[in-house]
Amino acid sequence: MSIITRNLSKILVQATQNVTTRSLHSSVPALAATSGISERPDTRIRCTLIPGDGVGPELVYSVQEVFKSAGVPVDFEAYFFSEVNPTLSAPLEDVAKSISKNRVCLKGILATPDYSHTGELQTLNMKLRNTLDLYANVVHVKSLPGVKSRHEDIDCVIIREQTEGEYSALEHEGVKGVVECLKIVTAKKSQRIAKFAFDYATKNNRKKVTAVHKANIMKLGDGLFLKSCEEMAKLYPKIEFERMIVDNCTMQMVSKPQQFDVMVTPNLYGNIVDNLASGLVGGAGVVAGASYSANCGARHTYSEAVGKNVANPTAMMLCSAKLLRHVNLPLYGDMIRNAVDQVLKDGKVRTKDIGGQSSTQEFTYAVIHNLKMPGAHK
Amino acid sequence: MFRLTKSGVSGICKNRLFWKKPSRRESSLSDFEIQQRTEKIIKYTPPPMALYGGRHAVTLIPGGGVGPECLGYVREVFKVIGAPVDFEVVEVGPLVDNVDLSDALTSIRRNCVGIKGHIPTHSDDVSAKLKNVAFRNDLDLYVYVLCFKSYAGVRARQKDVDIVIVRQNLEGEYSMLEHGVDTWMVENLKIHTRTNSLRVARFAFDYARKNKRKRVTTVHKANIMKLVDGLFLSVNKEVAKEYPEIEHDDMIIDNCCMQLVARPQQFDVLLTPNLYGNVVTGVVCGVIGGAGLYSGRNYGEHYAVFEPAIRSGASPIAGKNIANPVAMLNASVDLLFHLGHREYAKRIERAIVKTLVEDKIHTADLGGTATSQDVVRNVIDLCLA
Known about the structure:
heterodimer; A: alpha/beta; Isopropylmalate Dehydrogenase; 2 domains; two-stranded antiparallel ribbon; B: eleven-stranded mixed beta sheet; 13 strands; globular; disordered N terminus
């Protein structure tokens, strides 16, 4: 019997796909109207949207559906922006202008080819970061309820400098067969990211900041980064500061990740540690990231799985929840976050990457059905 | 003991140098030394501003008396209008220990901006650090700016007043150099320095130019204190020459107080040394509506701290829901202007004016019957309207 109902519901879901928007409206009747949310009812927030490549568009679509059902007062301004498809892509200036005007952006994954066709060394991602000066990348790695992984109770934040270091895009072949890549570290940017990390820790009641470096080998470059962190630590007497060499750090991360709280890293190490940590809590589909400059915040997923209707929208939804917190709509943010948690905890609807059979669409609907006003279920 | 080898001689030389310039830790510096910015401290370069994704981190120090409730209202208003500000709350208790005080100071050093209530120092010990004064000294907040503009319809002795007071915030009588030979004689050193007088004067004239003010009046008592106030006055006159479009005159403090009570409309910008500024502020506040309406701004080279104009905790009315929240709300408006969030600032400012002038929702200190929460609720409603 249960199989029949399950199949039936699947068919129904498939049938509704064509008329999604309409059926959604009827299935979840105007939640916002009854909930009495009074945060800035007069203003709607505009947010730039970059669906990206691969699974990006599907994931973004799920988020849009969830927003619509929850009645979130956010309007999206979508741009097709892609490096693998340069002819269709919107120009960088337009996108950057839109983001700096709206101050927030939700972004899917931008695929980067391994070889440059135009001979240009900077990728589109890097260009976007540099144009907007999105210097700080924050990845919050947290064990999710109901997602099986090797370790439990992981809760660490990895903060990465992403405008300099190895990503300077300064590579050249001076002599045939010898390639030099310049790794640039500046005091100003190191101080800035160190301060960001400590301020993040202060704001979120975190206890410890770990600087990840390789100053034993790169005494000047990483040395400067480390020194900046040490100096900044003096301004934060209540937060513990510790240093760790990157190789040791990766080992510790795999064997005992619970010891970490906030980590601050230069560019490349950050990238590696981010991916490592995402792997620990259930893969790329469930970890959300955010990038900040002084004036804008862009959120993007950490996902790199490309597929059709099997991708996990968890990361994107957690991203959107963070985005809502950032634009002063914390109630909506909590609502979506709780719904995602609930779906994962129930464990009935799971996408393939975390050991289930459900499609992206089914997961999205499950989340929508679990949308509750915070406090309402108590 | 001294061998005349090369290294030995140089060793002695080093020692001598050391004795000439004893290196002292910052904690052992006197208030006066901190005020005067010994070479050691002035070198300090501030960290980058705490601004991430368009959101500012701001230190919030509730202090004592009505401070906590008023700042609570500010946070409520900010939350409702969605001002992109994250507060870092640092409690500073009234007790003698200076641990949480230094916490608060580091916090402002990190964020560069703070908003605070009054912090009383309950101690009979002469050597105890006065916490309110410590903020200005340690953070080098050399100028205190107060804007007094009458609200029409608010019960007051004088109408149409529009005065800006620019007060030197560090030295003068507040140099913290007091001593007594015995009980029959005590001395307080009043100190003016050229550097500090100069930067306050420059600030005042720059402010006047920027805000299209016509006249700057120096308040002093140079007829009696010919050297100390004389220096302040002469520096002001010197600076005034660089600003030909702004009229400059001076007035003796006693006359100034009388004029302020009798005919305050004649004044534009008042430029005062430390103690006179304090007195004059009190007079103006009393004449145009009391302690609960206006806010003040402390500025230094690197930091800014905002607070209600009258630095007093008003402890007797704390927690009774009758304190006037407008002063602190105005301080928060100043804060938003300072951070560059003009739209949000204007929204709150308009709401405050409308609440006081048109809706006439006044707390007891203005002769009304409304509670603090009534005022705040009305401000919030108007902000959203």
